[in-house]
Design brief:
The chain has 398 residues and is α/β, with parallel strands linked by helices. It folds into two domains: 124 residues, 3-Layer(aba) Sandwich (Rossmann fold), CATH 3.40.50; 217 residues, Dihydrodipicolinate Reductase, domain 2. It is 33% helix and 27% strand. The strands form three sheets. Strands 7, 8, 9, 10, 11, 12, 15, 16 and 18 form a nine-stranded mixed beta sheet that branches. Strands 3-2-1-4-5-6-17 form a seven-stranded parallel beta sheet, with helices on both faces. Strands 13-14 form a two-stranded antiparallel sheet. Strand 2, helix 2 and strand 3 form a beta-alpha-beta unit. The model has no long low-confidence stretch (mean pLDDT 95).
């Protein structure tokens, strides 16, 4: 029986690419109705026209209008949740109450309070399936499948995009480098250890055009979910770290703001008006060209894993590549290269849920929700390719 797909905040740039992926790689036998749910219906109508698929319609929706949102979601099989981090609690609630399966990009934990409701409805909610978290988790699972024991997992990514091309993107910037954040942690020697912004600098050798860049610990859910998954399969790690970087110009700005205490986003008064400093900086950057452009666009995931097999020690490296953003490949130009990298795995995950290939019910982590082979096989024809290599080593080099 054909399914129905609802893209919540579906006209956003990233969720819009998840939607395009789901549309392009499905027939009406899989999805016979695809709805773009937006508060901004003009943007949704523009996207509908651009895609030009007769299965698509547009519905105005506000997740904060709970009763109305639940009513509009009822009857849909899969919901792509493209809302921002601060809305994920509320958006997950309405997806669960409506009796739908769902997935989002962030997976920061607010979703678990609706675990029992998803289970009661025999539905799955995949937590955080984009590039990172998401594809990174599947890469860790693929690496772990080649080891008898896992010692170290270092997850890294280069996200080369402008610092403030959208409010949600700058919100992520503010979130990840908030000095008061409690979940910026690493897993080390049996415990979660909290670290400050810009902790544990490490040079990560990603392929061209990104190159080797200093990366720092970031508050991503993989450190929690990968640790739990590896323990569950009997391969408990000694160390899991998650690092990331944006273009170095962006990183220099954020580091300076952090060193000056500005990332705390404290209130101040200007011309008798109270405002918050980071909110003002974010608003400025969103209005200026400097906040909307960067020299190189795209994404690279890079994972180093140390482990054992057959009594010998090995290092695995997994990384991904995608078409160039220089205009030589249609559909991957400029900022689109970054956006497609984040949105495409989300669209693939929605397809796998609809195809019955997702594993588990309730709130399910990316490691457990999808077989990496299914994910990688669907991504490669689109242009996102996973590379995996291995070498024997004499000892673990920390």
């Amino acid at each position: 029986m054909a399914k129905k797909l609802f893209a919540l905040a579906g006209a956003g740039r990233i969720c819009g690419w998840a939607l395009r992926t789901a549309v392009q790689y499905s027939s009406k036998d899989l999805f016979d109705k695809i709805t773009i749910g937006e508060y901004n219906t003009d943007a949704a109508e523009a996207l509908k026209k651009e895609i030009g698929d007769p299965r698509i319609d547009v519905v105005k929706i506000d997740v904060n209008d709970e009763a109305d949102a639940i009513k509009k979601l009822k009857g849909y099989d899969v919901v792509l949740d493209g809302t921002t981090i601060k809305l994920n609690d509320q958006s997950t609630k309405v997806i669960a109450e409506a009796g739908c399966s769902g997935l989002n990009l962030n997976g920061f934990g607010a979703e678990y309070k609706y675990q029992d409701l998803f289970k009661k409805n025999n539905k799955i909610h995949a937590l955080g399936y984009g590039m990172t978290p998401g594809l990174t988790d599947s890469m860790v699972r693929a690496g772990a499948e080649k080891f008898d024991k896992v010692d170290t997992v270092r997850i890294s990514h280069c996200a080369f995009r402008p610092i403030a091309y959208s409010p949600a993107i700058f919100e992520t910037t503010q979130y990840e480098y908030n000095p008061d954040l409690k979940n910026r942690v690493v897993y080390e020697d049996g415990e979660m250890k909290q670290v400050p912004p810009f902790a544990r600098e490490r040079l990560i050798p990603t392929p061209a055009p990104y190159g080797t860049n200093p990366q720092y610990i970031i508050p991503h859910s993989e450190v929690i979910t990968a640790t739990d998954y590896l323990k569950k399969i009997g391969k408990p790690p000694r160390l899991i770290e998650v690092r990331g970087t944006w273009p170095q110009k962006n990183m220099r700005l954020i580091k300076a703001l952090y060193e000056w205490g500005i990332m705390k986003n404290e209130s101040f008064t200007y011309n008798n008006q109270e405002m918050k400093i980071i909110d003002v900086i974010g608003a400025y950057l969103q209005q200026k060209e400097a906040g909307k452009v960067t020299e190189v666009y795209g994404y690279c995931l890079y994972i180093q894993m140390l482990g054992e097999r057959g009594g010998k020690k090995y290092e695995q490296v997994l990384y991904h590549t995608h078409p160039k953003s220089d205009g030589s490949v249609k559909g991957w130009e400029g900022l689109t290269a970054y956006i497609r990298n984040v949105g495409t795995p989300m669209g693939v995950a929605a397809l796998l849920i609809a195809q019955g290939k997702a594993q588990g019910i309730g709130c399910v982590t990316p490691e457990e929700a999808f077989d990496p082979k299914d994910v990688f096989a669907m991504l490669e024809p689109i242009g996102i390719k996973i590379h995996q290599s291995e070498r024997e080593i004499a000892d673990f080099n920390y």
